[in-house]
Amino acid sequence: MRLSTRARYGTRAMLELALGYGKGPIPLREVAERQEISEKYLEHLIFSLRSAGLVKSIRGMHGGYLLAKPPFQIRLDEVVRVLEGSIAPVECVDDPSLCGRVRFCVTRDIWAEMKEAMAAVLESTTLQDLVERQKEKEQSEGTMYHI
Fold it and tell me: Is 68 within a domain?
């Protein structure tokens, strides 16, 4: 199972806003450049995130976008749900009425377990967690070892 580019790019855009949290609005062009995402495509993602109340926009010369809440208050499941919809690998996990085999289908049980495992990871991870992971990666990249 794969997440769409909407969820992947949207999460990267939210990470970029989280990295700049507290420093004022960030122009969409900068987010697009830093995360290597088409600005046109990013406009669509930001619209969805703004509509969901995860992002705010500031107009004007020094305008841009910022998180609507602190990074520690935004969980990845919120971001993915807005951009992706359900993370269930098959429709019958969310709507058992779609299949007459639900009562005895063991494969559906596995798909439901997959959804629960993914949901647990996404629910327990905040944008702040991503910010900390990003900073750790940047620090380890900057470390030079000489022999």
Answer: yes
CA 140 to each of CA 3, 36, 119, 133, 147: distance values in angstroms, whole numbers, following the listed order: 28, 22, 29, 11, 17
What CATH number did the domain enclosing 86 receive? 1.10.10.10
Q: What is the pLDDT along the chain (147 residues), one digit of tens a residue?
A: 788 999 999 999 999 999 999 999 999 999 999 999 999 999 999 999 999 999 999 998 889 999 999 999 999 999 999 999 999 999 999 998 888 888 899 999 999 999 999 999 999 999 999 999 999 998 887 655 555
In angstroms, rounded to a whole number, what is the distance separating the alpha carbons of residues 61 and 78?
A: 30
Give the predicted TM-score (pTM) of the model: 0.88
What is the tally of structural domains in the chain? 1
In a domain, 147, yes or no: no
